[in-house]
Amino acid sequence: MKKTAVYKWVKRFSEGRESVTDEERSGRTLTSRTDENIVKILQIVCENRQLTVRSTAEQVNINRETVRKVLIEDLDMRKVCAKMVPKELTKEQKQRRVTICQDFLERQDDILVRVITGDETQVYQYDPETKRRSA
For residues 23 and 35, what is the distance between their CA atoms, to the nearest angstrom? Predict the structure, then answer.
């Protein structure tokens, strides 16, 4: 912070101000970050998760920064390997994981019969992938 800003805040607090949050300002209301546009962006991203923010902004005809804020703040999404994905799993994804785990539990006896045991040495095969290959 610059000294002038510090002096302004010291003056405001010495005059009796108690809140550190900004006061409301006059200005234009938000017109592009509406519920209608949020639903449109969600539909576009669900159809094709590999679209860029720029192409999504062109389809909805609003600013790129607004689309980015809608994706991150309103839809709670993030970019992973050039795909927009939700930070939390959907109900379908959670149910699919439960189904797979239940299948593993049912077949655990078959799997454990095939495990070869010996001394306490464990060997793992690890094939590192590049970011480009994993995408």
Answer: 25
92 and 102 Cβ atoms separated by less than 8 Å: no
**Per-residue pLDDT of the chain in tens (135 residues, 90 and over written 9):** 899 988 998 898 899 888 888 777 777 666 788 889 889 998 988 888 778 888 888 999 988 888 888 888 888 887 766 566 666 777 888 888 889 888 888 877 766 666 655 555 555 555 556 656 555
* Alpha carbon distance 34, 62 (integer Å): 11
Is 123 strand, coil or helix?
coil
Q: pTM for the whole thing?
A: 0.44
Measured torsion, CA atoms of residues 100, 101, 103, 109, in degrees rounded to the nearest 10 = 140
Which residue type occupies 127? Answer: D
Helix intervals (H) in the chain? 3-14, 35-47, 53-60, 64-69, 91-106, 108-113, 131-134
Q: How many CB atoms lie within 10 A of CB 57?
A: 20
User: What gap in Å lies between CA 42 and CA 22, rounded to an integer?
Assistant: 31
